[in-house]
Specification:
With 241 residues, the protein is of the alpha/beta class. It has 2 domains: 63 residues, no CATH class; 146 residues, 2-Layer Sandwich (Nucleotidyltransferase, domain 5), CATH 3.30.420. It is built from 8 helices and 7 strands. The chain has a 5-stranded mixed β-sheet with strand order 4-3-2-5-6. A two-stranded antiparallel sheet has the order 1-7. A hairpin with a 2-residue loop joins strand 3 and strand 4. Helix 2 runs antiparallel to helix 3, helix 2 crosses helix 4 and helix 5 packs across helix 6. The protein is globular, with a radius of gyration of 19 Å. The termini are far apart. The model has no long low-confidence stretch (mean pLDDT 88).
């Protein structure tokens, strides 16, 4: 337990300002720190030295990798591809799951998110199904954006998931009884699959880049998935090349 004096010392640390700055980077040009910042942002009103030190280490990581940025490019036509994932009830306080997604266009990521789910999932399938819903919403917006600039996708957009049960639920309406208690909005994904705007395909967990947005990873796997996101070192300043 900390003494009153130590509590006052912790309270004077510029934790909120630091996390706010990290959050701006995480949502704009640095998807590699998205998960860490999402975790740190949960303790803005009850942070400790441990949280402060973790935030500082995140800042030190950015300093050491300050030339790392997203590289965009690819062949014509450029294909929009999504990745979605979720942990299951890993938050000990609420037992809510953390979902994440990434959408790549050509060689680099153009949209990503880490989100704590609003309800407790009764199974890993439910958690991943809810994460896939969030990814599907973003997909429809991105398809609309591409259409507005003259690159409307002519085929269903591929979304990759490492849970076969989610794929089955998205394709077979007869399985709806298994998740009938899940909020109706989450069946948005099934409608988009039926309308052939989205197709959900399986990807091995070790190759699912959305994993980087849902949990802390060992360094080798973190670097591998970061590379798949299209993040490379640049000699010039700036996050996108």
């Amino acid at each position: 337990m900390l003494s009153d004096a130590e509590h006052e010392k912790v309270a004077r640390l510029p934790y909120r300002q630091l996390v706010g700055g990290l959050l701006w980077l995480a949502v704009s040009t640095r998807p590699d720190i998205q998960y860490a910042v999402q975790q740190l942002s949960q303790y803005l009103d009850c942070f400790t030295y441990t949280h402060w030190n973790t935030a500082v280490r995140t800042l030190q990581y950015l300093k050491g990798m300050k030339t790392l940025g997203i590289s965009l490019g690819g062949s014509n036509p450029i294909q929009l591809v999504g990745f979605t994932d979720s942990d299951w009830a890993n938050c000990l306080d609420t037992r809510r799951s953390v979902g994440g997604y990434a959408w790549t266009l050509g060689s680099g990521v153009v949209s990503w998110a880490t989100q704590k789910q609003k309800t407790v999932a009764a199974s890993s399938c439910e958690a991943e199904y809810m994460a896939a819903y969030e990814a599907a919403q973003e997909c429809i917006w991105l398809r609309s954006l591409l259409g507005a600039i003259g690159h409307k996708p002519q085929e269903a957009t591929t979304m990759l998931c490492d849970n076969n049960s989610v794929i089955n639920l998205s394709e077979d309406p007869m399985l709806h009884q298994r998740v009938k208690h899940v909020d109706i909005k989450y069946h948005f994904l099934r409608e988009r699959v039926a309308s052939r705007e989205i197709t959900v395909r399986y990807i091995n967990t070790k190759d699912n880049v959305a994993d980087i947005f849902t949990k802390a990873l060992a360094a080798p796997q973190f670097v591998r998935l970061r590379d798949i996101l299209g993040m490379t070192q640049h000699s010039t300043r700036g996050g996108v090349a």
